[in-house]
C-alpha cells in the first residue's frame, strides 16, 4: 500500500524550517538546500514543495502568520474592546523569546522587501491584513464606548501599526525595555479613549 503523504504538514514543516534558517543565517543564507537540511528532508522533496525563492519566503511568512493567529485565537478578552486591543497589540511586539524569534525573521524579510518586489508584495498583503484586523478591533471599541465615537478607525489602525513597527525595532535593538514598550502602547491607546 502506498505511503500517505500529508502535503500540508510538509509545507508547515518547511515553513518552520525556513524561519529557523532565516533567523540564524539571514536571507542570503536561506537556500532550499539549507531549509531542506533544517527540515530533515531530502533536497528533491523540498524542491518539489518550494521550487522558487518566492514560495520559500511565502512559506516562512505563512508559518509566522499561523503562529500569530494561533496565539490570537487564545487571546483572552479584556473588559472592553479597547482593553482587548491593548492585549492584541502587546502580542505583536517582541516581549518574549518566541516573539523575538518571530520579529527577527519578519524584519529580515521586511528588509528583503526593499530589493525584492515579490517579497514586498507579500509584506504588503500581510500589512493590509493586520490593518483590517486592527480596524475591526477599533470599530468594536467605538461601538462599546471604550474608544471615542469620533476616532477614525483606519487612521488609528495605521498609527498603531506604525507604533508597533517602531517598538519592534527598538525592542530588538535594546533601545527600549519590555516595560517601556508596554507603557508606549498604553499611552497610545489612551488617546483613543473618549474625552471625559
TrEMBL record:
One Pfam family recorded for the sequence: TetR_C_6
All copies of domain HTH tetR-type, residue ranges: 8-68
Source superkingdom: Bacteria
InterPro entries given in the database record: BetI_C, Homeodomain-like_sf, HTH_TetR, Tet_transcr_reg_TetR-rel_C_sf
DNA-binding region residue numbers: 31-50
Molecular function (Gene Ontology), one example: DNA binding
PROSITE patterns for this protein: HTH_TETR_2
Protein name as annotated: TetR family transcriptional regulator
